[in-house]
Design goal:
Length: 415
């Protein structure tokens, strides 16, 4: 089957052909016809499945068929991160090349006045992160009263990042009559509740088994002591002559430190995380894509939405605290039918995190011990809680729930 079978507008078909798209991916085969019908959709899709084109193409087609006045914001696409917002808007701009639409991307970390100026000129499609969009609403700089199509992309990640209250505030500002499209890699209870509140008799599709990993990804665990992880990583990169590797660090500070240590080892590396400016993040990603640096060290939030074609290697320098994040991380490789390799460096402190991941995947991950980097069996485990290793204390730590809530409330818009 080809894209011509969808009977999309000739202008869209022309853009599709120029971009080199030939056969639709499974999510596109399922989603495009249903979205063209105009109803609501709940779609389960991992990263790298082609879901962005899966909703962008029918969205553009439907907007033309509605034949409403242009210059008003008629479609809103919400994403969790700046990088994903930029990627989606790039797709919208490319696919709408021969259509009379204006699109723009809105996120924090850049001058809000520039965004206000763009909106004043008239825009049809907005791709945005929730925090900055609410800032613009507060300044009465954006009008959401004419929205006909709403897309929540990577809704599970938006909920993980604490955006649920922002999302609900935005939903209250939209017209009640609209088409709603919700895409999520996982279907937690929170996602199901959001879907029940948001969607009207939706069609439901699932591109891959829930929380499954791509078949083309080989996964391996290397047991190692925490203090020797960096040395082992440098060894693996050098020995295997890896040219392009995305490495995940649990913390921003850890990402900076690891990138610096790899540079000291003679391996070009850069870090990307939420504390970096947008220009620095864009530059780091471009250097990585073009091969100027071999290693990109990222935190989970910063890496969400990274669009890197044929990325061969992903390394979990630190295992994630949330098992589902393991699936998201390694989904950066093995995309669009390509093969990929996912490596995890696991110390004794992370054994419970590994068990949680294997429980989610429903299978054991293969382990390989490298001579000279075997873990010391005499080193006791220091469990990781809330991203920190817990060392012996003279008295129990004070409850941290209140502090964690205030952290999310104060920091979520910086993403």
């Amino acid at each position: 089957m080809s894209f011509k079978n969808f009977n999309l507008l000739p202008e869209l078909q022309r853009a599709i052909e120029e971009m080199g798209y030939t056969k639709p991916t499974p999510i596109q085969l399922q989603a495009i016809p249903l979205i063209l019908e105009g109803g609501d959709l709940l779609a389960g899709a991992q990263t790298g499945t082609g879901k962005t084109a899966g909703f962008t193409l029918p969205l553009l087609h439907n907007l033309i068929k509605m034949n409403k006045p242009r210059g008003k914001i008629r479609a809103l696409i919400l994403t969790p991160t700046r990088e994903l917002a930029s990627q989606v808007e790039d797709n919208v701009r490319s696919f709408s090349k021969y259509l009379p639409f204006r699109s723009t991307v809105i996120f924090g970390g850049v001058n809000i006045n520039t965004q206000i100026g763009t909106l004043r000129k008239g825009v049809d499609i907005v791709v945005a992160t929730p925090g900055r969009l609410l800032d613009l609403v507060g300044q009465k700089a954006i009008d959401l009263a004419h929205i006909e199509i709403l897309v929540l992309d990577e809704a599970d990640r938006m909920l993980d990042m604490g955006f649920i209250h922002d999302i609900r505030k935005l939903l209250a500002l939209l017209p009640k009559k609209r088409q709603n499209l919700l895409f999520s890699a996982t279907f937690s209870n929170e996602i199901k509740k959001l879907a029940n509140d948001l969607l009207d008799s939706p069609k439901m599709i699932q591109c891959a088994a829930q929380n499954s990993t791509a078949e083309g990804i080989s996964q391996v665990i290397y047991p190692v002591d925490s203090k020797r992880k960096r040395a082992l990583l440098s060894f693996l990169i050098t020995k295997n002559n890896w040219k392009q590797v995305l490495v995940f660090s649990r913390t921003k500070h850890g990402a900076n430190r690891l990138a610096g240590q790899l540079e000291t080892d003679g391996i070009t590396a850069t870090a990307i995380h939420g504390n970096k400016s947008q220009s620095a993040r864009t530059r780091a990603l471009e250097d990585f894509k073009t091969g100027k640096v071999r290693i990109l060290v990222a935190t989970d939030i910063a890496a969400r939405g990274l669009d890197i074609d044929q990325l061969p290697h992903v390394v979990n320098f630190d295992l994630p605290n949330v098992p589902e994040d393991y699936v998201h991380r390694i989904g950066r490789t093995g995309r669009a039918g390509n093969s990929g390799e996912a490596v995890s460096l696991v110390c004794v402190d992370e054994h419970q995190l590994l068990r949680d991941i294997e429980k989610l995947l429903k299978y054991k991950l293969s382990q390989v011990t490298i001579n000279g980097y075997e873990p010391d069996p005499s080193i006791p485990a220091e469990p990781i809680i809330n991203g920190r290793q817990q060392r012996p204390q003279s008295k129990p730590p004070a409850p941290r729930n209140k502090g964690r809530e205030s952290h999310f409330a104060s920091s979520r818009r910086s993403y």
